[in-house]
Amino acid sequence: MPMKLYAHPANYKTHKALIAAKYVGLEVETPAGAAAAQTGKIPVLETPQGCIFSSAAIARYISRINRQVALYGQNLLEGGMIDSWIEFCTHELEVPLCTWVLPKMGVFEEVPEATACAKEDVKRALTVLNNHLLHNTYMVGGVRGPRLCFPRFFEVALPRDAFQRLRFAESVPGLPRSS
Hints:
Residues 1-70 form the GST N-terminal domain. Helices cover 44% and strands 8% of the residues.
């Protein structure tokens, strides 16, 4: 029986969970027009054991379901490193990107000073990611052979020219997937 994800299907935060679910071979439904009953917030993942809310918590939970895929690392240290990169991407990249992009989408009014700061914050965050990827094919791990880890889902929506090295983008189609 598939789990149910109550979320806005077009939201990038929903995509984090859906990409992880597809990669680990988990069937997830996104019922149309559904709302969260317990917290009044979405997204909410309904599992047979209970509900999980918050896009990051849902994506992390799903990423840990299939240990053989190892989206959340192959040991505690890699799991901690993955958590570090997720927090980095959330606070250093996602927040300023929202400040920069959401006004362009008409979600709220643009504040030029905030947009200028957000652009600089994004540039700094991309520089950190780029510098890491200059020396590493993957954000975490990868020394035991090519594999994908969860923080890369936070980067998938970035422009292809955001990084000098695109080894990851070029290697994803060849990575083993669960059946």
